[in-house]
């Protein structure tokens, strides 16, 4: 089943195109990593899917055109986490994550015991249970990123959009977060779309890479198909070697010019 379909999607700011004619389809349970140089339009593309910016073309989620949905309806289908989300420092982890249940509440309704159970279960799955009563501004960077992921997960959507989920994390914490996300994807059948600057991580975890540059799709495919030294030289102006791990995944290694 197709979880996400984009046909000719474009976005313009003040009449200036920043995303042009993007078309891609992602099956249920898949992981798409959107990669590309700074300013390529990656974050804007995710915002268009999340309904945060107007767009041309069509976006369909689980067979439903998103332009037929209200904001609340979309929030029950699509979970979105920005690259640098605003985290109210004095809010506890539980209260922050509970905000993810808002799309499922009626007007003036309060959270129920069932909502709290969903939050507790999600915190436990992300090893945040012991931090449930902690205020957000007392957390480490990795713990905050997990709290953001928890808030999105409690929406109980089948499509997650995560903009640079490993931003600011060291290699160990970044790997741990992606491992958790991959495990949740496998266990729950969630479909994942991420932007990632780290091309090696993108190739390790995503089924498909979508390389965009100047707002346009340059190539889509597996890590080995997308990540070639020639292509990265063209689109990133980078001198690299593309190696292969013992598990068969590509690794992008920068090479000094002298």
TrEMBL record:
<keyword id="KW-0547">Nucleotide-binding</keyword>
<keyword id="KW-0813">Transport</keyword>
<dbReference type="InterPro" id="IPR003439">
    <property type="entry name" value="ABC_transporter-like_ATP-bd"/>
</dbReference>
<dbReference type="GO" id="GO:0005524">
    <property type="term" value="F:ATP binding"/>
</dbReference>
<dbReference type="InterPro" id="IPR003593">
    <property type="entry name" value="AAA+_ATPase"/>
</dbReference>
<protein>
    <submittedName>
        <fullName>ABC-type cobalamin/Fe3+-siderophore transport system, ATPase component</fullName>
    </submittedName>
</protein>
<keyword id="KW-0067">ATP-binding</keyword>
<dbReference type="InterPro" id="IPR027417">
    <property type="entry name" value="P-loop_NTPase"/>
</dbReference>
<dbReference type="Pfam" id="PF00005">
    <property type="entry name" value="ABC_tran"/>
</dbReference>
<dbReference type="InterPro" id="IPR017871">
    <property type="entry name" value="ABC_transporter-like_CS"/>
</dbReference>
<dbReference type="GO" id="GO:0016887">
    <property type="term" value="F:ATP hydrolysis activity"/>
</dbReference>
<feature type="domain" description="ABC transporter">
    <location>
        <begin position="4"/>
        <end position="239"/>
    </location>
</feature>
